[in-house]
Amino acid sequence: MDYSIALQLFFSGLNLGSIYTALGLGFFVVYSVTRVLNLAQGEFVMLGGMLVVTFYTKGIPLVPSILLAVVITSLAGAGIYRFIIFPARKFPGMTKVFLTLGCAFIIQGIALHFWGWEFRSLAAFFDTPSIQICGATIFGQTPWVIGATLIMVAGLFVFFGHTIQGKALRACANEPLGARTVGISIERMALFSFALAAGIGAVVGALITPLTMTSYSMGLPLTAKGLLAAFVGGITRVEGVILGGLVYGMIESITAGLIPWGNHNVIALAILVGGLLIRRRGILLTAGKG
Amino acid sequence: MGKKTIFVMTLAVVSIISGLVSCKATESATSYKIGALVSQTGNYAGLGLQALDGMQFIVDQVNEDGGINGIPMELVLLDVKSEATEVTLAARKLDEVNKVIALAEGTVTQLALSLIPVANELEIPSTGISGTALLDNQLGHWFFRPMGSEVDYAFLLLNHMSQYMGISKYAVLIENSGYGQGGKVFLPQLNPNHNLTIAGEEYFDPGATDLTPQLNKIKNSEAQAILIWGSSPTASMAIKQIREMGISLPILTTPAQASKDMIKSFGEYYELQPSVVSVTTKVDIWDQLPADDPDRESFKNFAESFEEKYGHPPAMWNILGATMMLFFADGLERSIPDPSNITEARAELRDALEATKDLNLISGTYTMSPDDHYGGIENNLVLITYKDGQMVYLP
């Protein structure tokens, strides 16, 4: 294989892997605290992307546009928990998962109503040009995606592993009774986790819109990819989400580059699902564990 | 029983009653009901909604002119959500509940394809948006496809490459879809007529994010131009990625890339030299046609009246939606079936559609027969390029 093609497969895998890692982080946050798979996470990504494009095209500079989108999407995430998940908190876990799916369709419908069906796009942040390395290309937006994902990963790692609040959040899932006994409000922590995941989703939406475009219908496919990436690695640990995202991204890149005929997405998904069948608790053997 | 339960039950009863009332209202047989199977949601909602506007535009025009022999046309709309299974379900509902005289699927090939067996089973004259001749040997007795074929516009693209660009080898980037299949099958058949060979053949999924693996291989091939063959937004995004990778080869595209929203999103990349060349209909550039072009006046009238109603010029899927309704309206005018006897009315309409002769639809001219439910004898497609956010006609 030509050297530049191999390098391009690596860069493309890194690009896709960063996107899938960033997508997986939102699932990690909610699942770590509530043990609920939030199927509306992709809609938060869509919402964030749409809001950033809306604000930016109205003349608001990029950074304030992103901050505004994060605040609004976080409020939407908190609202979903407070008004839909919280009233159903005593229902079985699967019911709550289906409720989040219902929320996804509601958000999608609202987005269609307000923004219509058109795809929207953004230029790379601050018009960063593409970089050519030995005949392979890194898009101008890719370093922003990788950089922001690394910052979010580091932030979550420190927060969950080394702060009292973060440990309190994890305690809610691991030892709910004990957490309540020591005065931790599980409901408040769950509300916080939905808001945090939605905020992360909005950042991801802003990051990937220059690469993928955004439209009202993009949420559910992103949910499927992010969820699978998180499960492949191990959804209860940040390291698992990173690993899953990168593995997924690399597989998708390699199938797109090396398999001449189509349906690369299906092939990548089949490989991952096959992998999950062999190693049901993810690569790090953490799915289902605290 | 709690207040909430009573409220929910009341709401349910009201919904059911209102549903029944609306069903009752649509069951009258005083109009020619056309079942519109349109994707209002899902991945192809953009195309579906455009087609719906085109369909409604013609139906309104026919009715403003007094209907078909005094009988109005009526669209009965169902959202097929960009899913093939929904097309089958919706077709059955439109048959049983709404007693439509004809069906029109207004999205893309794979959805039109799923309508063919059910249209033939239910014996309803039907059509659908599909630009591939791959369907033409499986249309059956009840499905018609008065749409341009890839063979027609591939000729324009290949001829432009070989005659005007002096190209002998090109790469093709094909979408993994029913539409993409047409390019995969027909391009190799047509290439020898133009002394062209394919130097690279790559595929992409309609929702793909990063096409650099495929594009890098094309970059390293002997291709002198890139032909993009697809109908999803990713096919337009490919143009952006090609230019961002520093690939300066000429790019040629199928019609979907010439849509207004894609030009709005990626126009700056379309215009980078050498600017992209696309296929589109004459309607898009009617004002650039020579004064003696026989279609100029009718396209002008269509484009201006459409823009007056919808606030924008007609896009490709608007035109295809309109084409389907013009086709049915012509068949109804020649047969004037009695809508109160739906089985006979459907059969009469089917026979009339099969006898379509020299019908100038916006996308081309059609003559059907029992053996030919495509019937294209002339197309109204042209090549354009892009400058200052506008399409520029390439005579």
Describe the structure using short key phrases.
heterodimer; A: about 290 residues; mainly alpha; two-stranded antiparallel sheet; 11 helices; B: about 400 residues; alpha/beta; Rossmann fold; 2 domains; seven-stranded mixed β-sheet; five-stranded parallel β-sheet; about 20% strand; globular
- Ends apart, CA distance between termini of chain B: 74 Å
Main beta-sheet strand count, sense and barrel state of chain B: 7 strands, mixed
Number of domains of chain B: 2
- Mean pLDDT across the residues of chain B is 89
Portion of residues in beta strands of chain B equals 15-25%
**Computed structural class of chain A:** mainly alpha
Structural class of chain B: alpha/beta
CATH superfamily of the largest domain in chain B: Response regulator
- What CATH calls the topology of the largest domain in chain B is Rossmann fold
Helix content of chain A: over 70%
What would a concise description of this structure say?
The complex is a heterodimer of chains A (290) and B (395). In chain A, helix 3 (62-85) crosses helix 8 (186-212).
Verbal overview:
The complex is a heterodimer of chains A (about 290) and B (about 400). Chain A is mostly helical. Chain A has a domain at about 20-220. Chain A is built from eleven helices and two strands, in the order H-H-H-H-E-E-H-H-H-H-H-H-H. Chain A has helices spanning about 5-35, 40-55, 60-85, 95-115, 140-160, 165-175, 175-180, 185-210, 220-235, 240-260, 265-280; strands at about 130-135, 135-140. Chain A has a two-stranded antiparallel sheet. In chain A, helix 1 (about 5-35) packs across helix 9 and helix 9 crosses helix 10. The mean pLDDT of chain A is about 85. Chain B is α/β, with parallel strands linked by helices and about 400 residues long. Chain B folds into two domains: about 30-150 and about 310-380, Response regulator (Rossmann fold, 3-Layer(aba) Sandwich); about 150-285 and about 380-395, Response regulator (Rossmann fold, 3-Layer(aba) Sandwich). Chain B is built from twelve helices and 15 strands. Chain B has helices at about 5-25, 45-65, 85-95, 110-120, 150-165, 180-190, 210-220, 235-245, 260-270, 295-310, 315-335, 340-355, and strands at about 30-40, 75-80, 100-105, 125-130, 145, 170-175, 195-205, 225-230, 250-255, 275-280, 360, 365, 375-380, 380-385, 390-395. In chain B, the strands form three sheets. In chain B, strands 7-6-8-9-10-14-15 form a seven-stranded mixed β-sheet, sandwiched between helices. In chain B, helix 3 (about 85-95) runs parallel beside helix 4 (about 110-120). Mean pLDDT of chain B is about 90; it is low at about 5-30. Classes of the chains: A mainly alpha (about 290), B alpha/beta (about 400). The interface between A and B is large, with 43 and 36 residues.
